């Protein structure tokens, strides 16, 4: 009789561990989104400053 193969990639975890893993993914996603938002806002700040300077120079 052949030995039964065991899928070692499947692991049994507790419900509490699953919740913590899900929470970790959520936190990491939020962190990445926050970083992206900061980069976007930095670019928009630079754009606004450049436009303010351009308008200010016109009025001199």
How many helices? The count is 1
Portion in helices:
over 70%
Q: How many E-type strands?
A: 0
Identify the overall geometry.
rod-shaped
Ends apart, CA distance between termini: 93 Å
**How much is the average pLDDT?**
91
- Bin the strand percentage: under 5%
- Outline the biggest β-sheet: none
Radius of gyration, rounded?
Answer: 26 Å
* pLDDT < 50 runs, ≥5 residues: none
Number of domains: 1
Structural class: mainly alpha
Helix/strand order:
H
Topology:
Layout: H1 15-58
Describe the structure.
There is one protein chain. The chain has one domain. It contains one helix and no strands. The protein has one helix spanning 15-58.
Brief account:
The protein has 60 residues and is mainly α. 73% of the residues lie in helices and 0% in strands.
Question: What keywords describe this structure?
Answer:
60 residues; mainly alpha; rod-shaped
């Amino acid at each position: 009789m052949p030995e039964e193969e065991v899928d070692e990639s499947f692991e049994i975890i507790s419900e509490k561990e699953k919740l913590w893993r899900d929470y970790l993914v959520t936190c990491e996603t939020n962190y990445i989104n926050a970083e992206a938002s900061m980069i976007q806002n930095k670019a928009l700040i630079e754009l606004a400053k450049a436009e303010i300077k351009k308008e200010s120079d016109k009025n001199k």
